Amino acid sequence: MPLLPNSFRALVIGSSGTIGSAFMELLEQHPACTKVIGIHRNSANPIDYQDLNTIEEAAKALSGEAPFQLIINTIGILHSPDWMPEKKLDDLNAEQLQLLMQMNAIGPGLTIKHFSKLLDPANSVMATLSAKVGSIEDNRLGGWYSYRASKAALNMLIKTASIEFSRTKPNTALVALHPGTVNSRLSKPFKGEQIGRPPLDAANDMLNVLLSLNKEDSGSFITYSGERLPW
Fold it and tell me: Is residue 229 part of a domain?
């Protein structure tokens, strides 16, 4: 039986991004969603992973809006104007590795810590966008060292928290969600516009998966199509 009730309230973290804004649009139109709030680095209650203190501050600022039955975190980084994913080991550098760890693992991990306090204990879903390339077992191509490592670290944080939630929040499903290739700034340098899907299509697929989750799905690494991925 799906965890989310027929009437639910949602929070989208990273709502100014390509996927985050698509989730906002879908949830604003969804008949079962009575309210959706979006936050990002320039919102009234800003959240910015380059300033980790904003995570707890934003969660505390939104505590009056709780509880939420659905929280989706879409924040993540793959590349910057200064560098692209590493093609070989010689490209590995401390600055890039540290930044991706902060943006893709430390920030989302602290977000789970602070924002999970805003979840409805009766029934709720919390999803964080991960990536299939973060799967250690599925890694057959190599490369992309920092991005792969940061997403693998994120996956471990989610899996570990889900085990704790099975005791402390038994009616919450905590999942890592792979969106697939989406037409966005993140995927554009990698032919994403040719091989990806429109953001609304991707967000709609992911939302359908989230709406179908039950508490036994907590601790899963799931694709936009509902497929289970190996960690």
Answer: no
Let me know: does 13 contact 37? Beta carbons within 8 Å. no
**Tokens found for residue 205:** 């697929």
Instruction: Quote the pLDDT of residue 188.
Output: 56
Which pTM does this prediction carry? 0.94
- CB 154 within 8 Å of CB 109: yes
Asked if residue 3 is part of any domain, the answer here is: no
- On whether residue 51 sits in a domain, the answer given is yes
Q: Is the pLDDT of residue 70 over 90?
A: yes
Q: What range defines the domain where residue 86 resides? A: 8-223
Q: Is residue 228 part of a domain?
A: no
Only one residue has tokens 């799905």, namely 217
94-112 pLDDT, tens digit each = 999 999 999 999 999 999 9
Can you give the CATH number for the domain in which 80 is found?
3.40.50.720
Name the strands in the sheet holding 124-129, side by side, starting at the edge strand that comes first in the sequence: 33-39, 8-13, 70-73, 124-129, 172-178, 221-223
